[in-house]
Every structure is written in C-alpha cells, then in structure tokens.
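Study this fold:
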Amino acid sequence: MKAILVIDKAESCTGCLLGIFNKKWFCLATNKDIDICDRYNIPSWCPLRPLPKKIKHKDEIDYDYGYIDGRNECIDEITGEQNGEEKLL
C-alpha cells in the first residue's frame, strides 16, 4: 500500500523534515546515511517528488474527456484546496 505525505520540499537535506542529525546525517524516508557533502543538496536518490502543477484550460483542444478536471481535482484533494482556495474542515 502507498500513501502520500504532503510537506514543503526543502532545498537540501539539512532543511528537510525527514533528514535528521544524530552524530551523522540520516534520511528517515530511505533509511540511508546522507554523505556529508550531499547534505546541502538534494541527492539523486531522494524519494520526494514535487507535486504536479494544475493544468489550465487553454482551449477546447486541450480538453480531453475530463482528464484535466480530474487531474486538478486530485491535486486539490492532496493539498486540501478547493479551486485554489483552502478547504474549511
């Protein structure tokens, strides 16, 4: 089973919520040690991926059987937004 955790992606391992320092840098997401040289960058093995951006309707040619609407609604559900505005729970 997979799950989604929505966090702000950091610029480096040192600013990441999943990177910790306890005598050495360690990634909680992958259970890997972070090389001292890599801690100020994002290593290629980082599992965090940016959330895709919403697609804007440009014209009728772009509209593909609700694909755009479905994609945008899915992104809204993940981020807790509704039409670009935060949902009230």
